[in-house]
């Protein structure tokens, strides 16, 4: 069975490391306008980027709605309400601060590429390491409720001996992590990187 797996991985050119898996990780980032934070510093999106987003939301050119709402695409009024919420009600700096408090962010450089992750220190006598990975589409922020419970079970009425030391990465191509520069970067290639 191991030989069969190894042969399948060889056929796909994937064994050993990201570079041997045919994964070329280029110097691009999801949005070159979003500056990456230095290693070990908090998650931060600059005021310039937020002002640019506000400007873009203010300048949306709405399409004509064809047919009944949701019949041929999204409901136009729903989209307008969503944009109004993002423009006037959503408070990114407050959200950013909450995420940083619950899921403290850092960057790891893998093959010269930034991989964003949160590191939550376990509070117990011997916390067990645990890697929490989101799916697609998804985000490390999905774990904002469960991470504190896993890292500090005593604070939620649990046994401190059940604590975990958490690493919660933003998978490549998501959030503040690098974007793979080749097609075909999938679960196997992510697993190789996470193992490192």
Descriptors:
single chain, about 200 residues, alpha+beta, 4-stranded mixed β-sheet, 6 helices, 4 strands, about 30% helix, globular
Helical residues, percent: 25-40%
Rg: 21 Å
Q: Number of helical runs?
A: 6
Number of strands: 4
Strand proportion, as a percent range, falls in 5-15%
- Low-confidence residue ranges: 5-38
Average residue pLDDT: 80
Task: State the shape.
Answer: globular
Helix-strand sequence: HHHHEEEHEH
Helical/strand content category: alpha+beta
Main beta-sheet strand count, sense and barrel state: 4 strands, mixed
Q: What is the end-to-end distance?
A: 24 Å
Strands of the largest sheet, in order across it?
Answer: 1-2-4-3
Task: Tell me about this structure.
With 196 residues, this protein is an alpha+beta fold. The chain has helices at 2-11, 47-58, 76-89, 92-102, 146-151, 187-195; strands at residues 105-110, 113-120, 128-131, 164-169. α2 runs antiparallel to α3. The two termini are 24 Å apart.
